[in-house]
Amino acid sequence: MAAALAALLATAFVALAITGTARMYTPVPFWDMWGATLGFYIAITDGASWLWWAQHNEHRIVLSRLLFWLDYEFFGGLHVFLLVMNHVFVALAVLLFWRMSHARLRDTKTERATLYFFTCFLIAWLYQWMQHENLAWAFQSQFFLAQLLPLCAFYWLHKSASHERAHTAFAVACLFGVASAGTMANGILALPLMALYALITRMQIWRLLILCGLGVITLGLYFNNYASPPHHGSTIDTLLQQPLQVVQFVLLYLGTPFFNLFGRGTTGSVIAMASTVAMAAIAITFLYRGIKTPKHNTLTLALVFGVVYLAGTALGTATGRVTFGVLQAISYRYTTPALMAWACVLVLLLPWLCRQAQQFPRPAIATLLAVLALMLTLQWQAATPQHQLVFDRQVAGLALTLGVEDETQIQHVFELTPGLLRTVEVAEARQLGMFALHPWRDLRDTLGEIITGDALPLCRGHIDLATTLVPDQAHLAIQGWLYNAHQQQVPALITITDAAGIVSGFALTGQPRPDVADAVDDNAYLSGFRGYVSRELAGGTVVLIADSPACKLAFELPTHRQNP
């Protein structure tokens, strides 16, 4: 019974994480993706191969760029592949920690049962929805890789340290160490820490020299032609001028899981910082024990070095981001490295936790249930529908497709800049990603065509508002609702024509309209629409022609008002 319940809970956490990702999905690129995925693919196909190693802020995201290229080259640039890979990387992290846990419990009497329940907890821990900014954003593979690959490097280095003839394990460790530099900026810490690990564990001198050599070469290549981002603070200056803020940032950063679990308020902040202090004490204790007898504690030291690496990540982030405020530390995207750090700590403590559970079973079970209850409460948020978020991004994509400079709407996906408009123009011409999909495909080319829709049934609907746009003066934004009562469905795309049938604009449905659902039909809940039409039609009659299911509605366009 207990085993089935544990498996059910672990499955529920994974299923909810996948559900949340699916609910937030849209093929419209979001923020950095316009330049770093779509723009990158366009440039690479045009021959700009140097971009593979180019900086993205302070990072060189080579491995993620490989995934971006694969997404557009083989999967249509729909971002589904990238989102799947985010979850695959979490699964690989679970596998890594399972292997470490297995090694930590090898000499215990209850190895199999303990490992099973602990693995179920690890699955729940690492799939927590509090890291939704990484799980549900197709751009964020590097946030998983930058933690996973160095931890793999330390694990395989432990394998090679425990067996002097394990040359393959050492080669694998080196490969992971070098690859770490192609994830994010913190990845460059991996090889220097691996060299220090080799020194402490008294590995063969030739292995130490290889690690040092790889570290020097990798750092040299990384910082060759490196330009520090202008909006980031200097590391030395920040440490000297804001030491207390940096400490607070690091304490919050590594404690973000508990900050989220305990309410994201003052109580959560105190518990988060206290938990990081506890993490430091645990890591130092195990480091001391490991240094005393390094040959017998290679895995312990690998886990400690994992914590040190992730603490270094927090410190590096603090020196670059604390200028934007200490509260940057509690951003949801920073939860992933913190969850990984705590997974390392839990594996370190696993034998001790087993002994405590055997000695005090009831308090142990009560504590575990309380933690799981907090985690599950947050995890259920993944099931919350994200209709408005998806609608806003879809309509932003519509504005870009039509060349309508609706700055307020476009800011849902990126800042309105000339660079963005150029990327959209090229992507639309080549029909890349979203621009090859309904409802955005070829919309601009359809403007000016004649569509009558004489035989179509009438829709139910209303145009509530028409507003002018900033900075666009040639179009109006229109909002309202539309519903096909005959089919009891909401259409996806609305083509807007003038009285003569000339196509003058388009709109997308999908906005929640509970008022319409209450007054008309429950199925009309997502009948709200927003779109764009030529300003020349202001005050005149327009015809809304819906597709799948098709219907139409003639309506007088309201007198427009100035968009504030």
What composes the largest sheet?
A: 7 strands, antiparallel
How many E strands? Answer: 7
Order of helices and strands: HHHHHHHHHHHHHHHHHHHHHEEEEHEEE
How many structural domains can be distinguished in the coordinates?
Answer: 2
Give the termini separation. Answer: 60 Å
- Quaternary state of this entry equals single chain
Q: What low-confidence regions span 5 or more consecutive residues with pLDDT below 50?
A: none
Give the % helix.
Answer: 55-70%
Strand content: 5-15%
Q: What is Rg?
A: 27 Å
Content-based structural category:
alpha+beta
Number of helices: 22
In spatial order, strands of the major sheet run: 1-2-5-4-3-6-7
Mean pLDDT: 92
Shape: elongated
Describe the structure.
The protein is of the alpha+beta class and 564 residues long. The protein folds into two domains: 55-225 and 238-383, no CATH class; 389-556, no CATH class. The protein contains 22 helices and seven strands. It has a seven-stranded antiparallel sheet. Helix 7 (141-161) packs parallel to helix 9 (190-200) and helix 14 (266-292) crosses helix 16 (335-359). The protein is elongated, with a radius of gyration of 27 Å. The N and C termini lie far apart (60 Å).
